[in-house]
Amino acid sequence: MKKIKTFLYIFISVPVLLSTLSCKDPILYHISEEIPLKDPMIEGSPTNFIMFDNILYVATGKTIFAYNGAGTAPDPLWPMDEPGKWRKRYVKTKPFSNYNIIQLAETSSRVYALCYRDTDNTTSRKIIYADSTQGINDGSWYELTGITKGTTGDYNIIHSIYTANDNLYIGVQYSGGKPKDPKKERDRTNEYDVLVLNADNTTFTRLLPPDGPAPDDNETTIYYKDGAVLYGVAYNGKTFLCTGKGIFLVNDAGDASSELREKKEENGVLVNDLTGSFSMNFVGIITLPDNSIAAIRRNGTLYEADTVGLIKRLNFTDNQTKAALKEKRWATGAMAICSENYKEELEMPLSKRKILLVGRRDIDTSTTTGYTFGYLELELNNDGSIKGNPEPDGSIKDNRFNQPGEPNKGSYTSVVSDAASSYASSIGVISIKYIIQAPNGFLFASTQFSGVWSYKFRKDGKKHMHMWNAEEK
């Protein structure tokens, strides 16, 4: 009799449980919308994306991948290839053929790669470059020397590389340990700087302003900001350096920079805060289509920078907004401009309507959304400025960060309506490092651990729809 009661209890409890967890329940809803995930062609933790000679590049490990469908027509170097496919390229120049690539950057004449030996991801870092598409295809690369010796101050760690206005910027650090005699030697353990490659392609110029007292007569080195890791560079007629210790504006001569200070309002009057942005950990910066500069801090706060040395924090006045990058949602540093995506399987001209995409990560996973990563969207005006026209005090009305596919009424999104639900169970649970929209409209994302993903029209069993998934082989 006891077994019968137990069976009846289980039999009754299951329907009750299922009725309680209705289709409206977020957990069951996301499970019902899950799509089979592909095995990525480009695995691991890929680099950023760059465009060089109308070809899209990304790297992972020791392999560079070239996307020949990034332009309006297949590249002539691949006349027999099917458009829209990735092709592998390798660094064949020794010893760099055995180096791992962690970042790419491009000017009009060169592609740069920051790389390191398998056994050492710190002091072994080198910058190599190829000076043509043919050089990339042939695997012919050269080392950019002079960074760790000579006029740069013997910096022995290269953190990052970025380009803007056809110039190469390099984030460096000195990490040589504590001085043997602190009374005679300054502690340079956490000395950071940003270098720019001069027009001779051989020498470098320091850009960050000194931090601390001027050197004594017996000293020949100027010391720079502690922790100012370079996270990006933007250009709009002026050059802005985004660092973990604030935003810096490079002067017109291009040989030094000054720290931007925060713009604030007191009693309706704008004032310049006496404290600069050095205490702010910025992780991303971008030039918007209207030529303004937007930057984001690790804590998800969005700022606008101007060319007179001020930055202002943007505030969303909609108190109902919960999708803004705040309240346990941090920024990864990924920022990109997306034109409203095409709605058909075939490629179509992109709309003039623009969206700012920002990668996010959570401090923890205790959120109410059921997914904690991916990216958020902020609608822009047709001219590329931030919709809502920020007031002098930085307040924005009628705009906010949104989940993809869930915009405000009348606003735009990077995914079509039939892909909104699949976003939550795909890229929405993946940490994004970089994101880009190729000229053919496809979105590509470089993830933290899951390879390269893409948003495009896919035929997957019974599902024929636009969706995010790993970029398949």
Can you tell me about this structure?
The protein is mainly beta and about 475 residues long. The chain has 4 helices and 32 strands.
SSE order and pairing:
Blueprint: H1 2-20, H2 26-32, E1 50-52, E2 55-60, E3 63-67, E4 86-90, E5 99-106, E6 111-117, E7 126-130, H3 133-138, E8 142-143, E9 157-164, E10 167-174, E11 191-197, E12 204-206, E13 230-235, E14 239-243, E15 246-250, E16 257-259, E17 261-266, E18 269-276, E19 282-287, E20 293-297, E21 302-305, E22 310-313, E23 315-316, E24 329-339, E25 354-362, E26 375-379, E27 395-396, E28 401-402, H4 420-424, E29 432-437, E30 443-447, E31 452-460, E32 463-470
Parallel strand pairs: 17-22, 23-27
Antiparallel strand pairs: 1-2, 2-3, 3-4, 5-6, 6-7, 7-8, 9-10, 10-11, 11-12, 13-14, 14-15, 15-16, 17-18, 19-20, 20-21, 21-22, 24-25, 25-26, 26-28, 29-30, 30-31, 31-32
Which features characterize this protein?
473 residues, disordered N terminus, four-stranded antiparallel β-sheet, 8% helix, 4 helices, six-stranded mixed β-sheet, mainly beta
Distance N terminus to C terminus?
58 Å
Helix-strand makeup class: mainly beta
Helix content: under 10%
Q: Main beta sheet: strand number and arrangement?
A: 6 strands, mixed
Strand content: 35-45%
Question: What spatial form do the alpha-carbon principal axes imply?
Answer: globular
Q: What is the average of the pLDDT values? A: 76
What is the number of beta strands? 32
Physical arrangement of strands within the biggest beta sheet: 18-17-22-21-20-19
What is the helix tally? Answer: 4
Low-confidence stretches: 2-32, 71-81, 213-223, 319-324, 342-350, 365-370
- C-alpha-based Rg, rounded: 25 Å
